[in-house]
Amino acid sequence: MVRTIILVDDSKLARMVVTGIVGRIQPDWTLIEAANAQEALDLIRENRADIALVDFNMPDIDGLTLIARIRESHPDMPVAVVSANAQDDIIARARALDAAFIEKPLKDETLKPFLSGAALRLKRLGR
């Protein structure tokens, strides 16, 4: 089944890297980009995404705060925090929000398990 991933990262270069990885792993899936949290929330409210990949370090609203807001309207959406900042407290906070943590730099082999699990989770939910 074709899925839509929203990638939220203020870095255009990071979005380009993830776009390439997702294209190799799931070439038939759609990837939409948001450069900030508000843009992401607007797209998610429009139900334009099934899965979210969220950078932790962003201006205005950090990734974990964004995920908390996503959870208000989409409690079952598969979400991952993507960050080079792999501190125990950030990982624990991500898990408390039912979000995966994926360390940067992203690679095919680190993103593929999350995407496979996300697709399975959505299938189990009948979506």
Explain what this protein looks like in three dimensions.
The chain is of the alpha/beta class and about 130 residues long. The chain has a single domain (about 5-105), classed as Rossmann fold (3-Layer(aba) Sandwich). Helices cover about 45% and strands about 20% of the residues. It has helices at about 10-25, 35-45, 65-75, 90-95, 110-125; strands at about 5-10, 30-35, 50-55, 80-85, 100-105. The chain has a five-stranded parallel sheet with strand order 2-1-3-4-5, sandwiched between helices. The longest helix has 17 residues, at about 110-125. It is globular, with a radius of gyration of 13 Å. The mean pLDDT is about 95.
Please give a handful of descriptors for the protein shown.
single chain; 127 residues; alpha/beta; Rossmann fold; 5-stranded parallel β-sheet; 5 helices; 47% helix; globular
CATH superfamily: Response regulator
Which fold name fills CATH's third level, the topology?
A: Rossmann fold
Question: How many E strands?
Answer: 5
Number of domain units: 1
From the spread of the alpha carbons, the general shape counts as globular
Mean pLDDT: 95
In brief:
With 127 residues, this protein is an alpha/beta fold.
Mind sketching the topology for me?
Elements: E1 4-8, H1 12-25, E2 30-34, H2 37-45, E3 51-55, H3 63-73, E4 79-83, H4 88-96, E5 100-103, H5 108-124
Helix pairs in contact: 2-3
